[in-house]
Amino acid sequence: MSAKTELVRELNGPTAASEMLSDQEIEDLLGLFRSAQQQEKELLIEAVNGMIRFFPPPFKTITRRIMFGDLLER
Question: Could you read off the pLDDT of 28-69 as tens digits, one per residue?
């Protein structure tokens, strides 16, 4: 799969701006996009862990699972 196809899939559809980018620029943008998604996920996990750190141990996992499901799996 080409970087352009992957970028279109990540963005849920084509964009006019992506037509103006070179293949290298598209690869760079795709890398930045995925890196930002991973960083956002890690920060969300950290924030949730900080929020529930005062819960009794048996409730931490249950609370995280109820509130976020599989969204916070690493």
Answer: 999 999 999 999 989 988 988 898 888 898 888 888 888 888
Tokens representing 70 are 């599989």
The whole-angstrom separation of Cα 19 and Cα 42 is 31
The answer to whether 17 and 45 have CB atoms below 8 angstroms apart is: no
Instruction: Report angle CA 27, 17, 30 to the nearest 5 degrees.
Output: 20
Q: Which of 28, 32, 30, 38 is nearest to 7 (CA)?
A: 30
Contacts of 26 (CB under 8 A, 6+ apart): 3, 4, 7, 18
User: How many CB atoms are located within 10 Å of the residue 51 CB?
Assistant: 12
